[in-house]
Amino acid sequence: MTNPITQNAHLTKQHPTSSSPVSSQQDIYARVTAKILDDLEQGNLSWRKPWNSAHLAGQVMRPLRWNDIPYTGINTLLLWNVASERGFTSPYWMTFKQANQMKANICKGEKGTQIVFADTFTKAEEDANGDIKSNRIPFLKCYTVFNAAQIDGLSDGFYKTLEPVVINQQTRNPKLEQFFAQTKAEIYIASKAYYAQSTDSIQMPPFESFETAVRYYGVLAHELTHWTKHPKRLDRDLGRKTYGDEGYAKEELVAELGACFLAADLGFEPVPESHHAAYVQSWLQVLKNDKRFIFSAASQAQKAVDYIYHLQGPSG
Length: 316
Description:
Blueprint: H1 25-41, H2 49-52, H3 73-86, E1 93-94, H4 96-101, E2 105-106, E3 113-126, E4 132-147, E5 151-152, H5 174-181, E6 187-189, E7 194-196, E8 201-204, H6 213-227, H7 246-266, H8 276-289, H9 293-310
Parallel strand pairs: 6-8
Antiparallel strand pairs: 1-4, 2-5, 3-4, 7-8
Helix pairs in contact: 1-8, 6-7, 7-8, 7-9
């Protein structure tokens, strides 16, 4: 199975072709976080909205650039959110300039959606000893994109409505079984689902105990994202000390996003776990305390998904 996220990954590093006036980084973090906090306070999970939208149900996938390269990280969340709120069924997004190059026009009165471009620049600085050292400084830049539904004159392929993904609700799916097996993660049958770092193993209730197959795969995707944090894999340490503390909440948010990214790529619904209501409260507190964490969480989840795809091998 080819990883749709890292395929042609070198192309995703390009600078945006059309940018809005540069906002301060603090404004960008605050704007995005405020929107997600507002959703959470209403009991909505921004990253799950596509699966709850009637016009998107069963066909959720990553938002795509004009050249079929998927958006990643925080931009996936931003574009999913707008698509579900505005009823856009096309997965394609592009800048004004890109549309213009294809001899297409933004429809009169349409407003674009701001997303972000993250990169670093090199700055030479003098240290305490008088030596000149180069430091890599991260930065964010906003730019504006439009959904294909807001553009006239594109080729028919940009307006396609995706066919619903059909997964047998009661039986194991061979494609998904192979995908998860390829990771070589140790998965054992237990009374509840969890990842145990001490034994580096995933515990899952029996397949037959889940109401549907997609519920099983949704939970497994969540636990597999946790599995990537092990020191011999991505070595992801978000500061958890005890069960339920802020570090625990942060890791749960990463696993939640990772499960949603995997579900969109593989074609199933990331059914929420029964204790999501409790998680929402902890995520609210985390995001209020750290206005940048949703960006970090989306980035960490993306790295986890990329790692899982890497394990699929060259013929993946």
